[in-house]
Amino acid sequence: YGKNTIKFLRLHREGKKHFVKEVEVCAHLRLTSPQEYLEGNNSLVIPTDTIKNIVLVLAKKNGIPSLEQFAIDICNHFMTTFCQVAYVKTYVQEVPWQRLHEDGVPHIHSFICVPDGIRFCEAEQCRNGPLVVFAGIKDLKLMKTTQSGFEGFYKNEHTTLPERHDRILCGELFCKWSYGECKDFDFDCIWKKIRECILEAFAGPPDCGEYSPSYQKTVNCIQMLVLSRVSQVQVIEAVLNNTFYNVVDMKNLGLTNDKEVLVPVEAPYGSCACTLGRK
After folding, report:
1. Which residues are annotated as a binding site for O2?
2. DSSP string of 137-203?
3. d(CA 159, CA 239)
């Protein structure tokens, strides 16, 4: 049991310059005894309102040095403070605020919310067990307008999809990865490096791109690049929910539409998923 959707903004001031972290936290506990379920005995139950207040107090006292460290702090607090807690799981996701720039100059106290993917993390701790940390990015919308196709697929009497050697590749990406033993990791730096790998693998070189024969191959390329460059990542899961675009037929309007006006296919969506790890 636990408390979901604990939302708050942590404001940190350094002189006139302000720093913000707005997050949403879910914290769940498993106790050493199920007596509250079986017997209605609540003597070991930590109220969910108390769980919420603990999260807020930790944010006040410790700040949020990184999402992962904050999740670890929450796990450590419940494990070291309450002997009846057998397991704690913490999920933290961040609102994507970025510092506002005016003529290239960073503003000291103004920010803009940029929807370029939501960062999240999870930390799990069992009593007498290892701390397990996951991190990820979700709702990352990506598109490339060429260098993508889908050909040579299996066909039977139910197949109506035409082969395409040049199409738009567009989708919403979810990635989640696990770390090995956490030893003084710079979680912010690692997360940014993984995000750069994702964008590079999706797009290819900036002057020419890289051909994608399928959504599945693109997902695998993302995972392979992350594992090759970020040694701290042990397993990476990726899900790409696809958005398809159809070219509008403008013949009746007396116009030739050379893939210049397209409309998104609202439903159904395609999706591909893969989990890849080291040996």
Report:
1. 48, 242
2. EEEEEEEESSSB-B-S----TT--PPPBSS--EEEEEEEEEEESS-SS--HHHHHHHHHHHHHHHHH
3. 24
Annotated binding site: 48-49, 150, 167, 216, 242
Residue ranges for the known binding site for 5-hydroxyisourate are: 48-49, 150, 167, 216, 242
Which residues in the chain are classed under CATH 3.10.270.10?
A: 2-129, 140-277
pLDDT confidence of residue 47: 97
| pLDDT tens-digit readout, 37-72 | 999 999 999 999 999 999 999 999 999 999 999 999
220 vs 150: CA distance, rounded Å: 16
Average pLDDT over residues 253-269: 90
Domain 140-277 in this protein, CATH class: alpha beta
Between CA 276 and CA 279 the distance in angstroms is: 10
Instruction: Find out whether 238 and 214 touch, Cβ atoms under 8 Å.
Output: no
- Torsions phi, psi for 78 (to 5 deg): -70, -35
Q: What single letter denotes the amino acid at residue 158?
A: H
For residue 145, the one-letter residue type is T
What the block records as the tokens of 26 is: 């879910």
User: What CATH number does domain 2-129 carry, 3.10.450.50, 3.20.20.140, 3.10.270.10, 3.40.1380.20?
Assistant: 3.10.270.10
The pTM of the whole model exceeds 0.90: yes
Q: Given this model, what pLDDT does residue 208 score?
A: 93
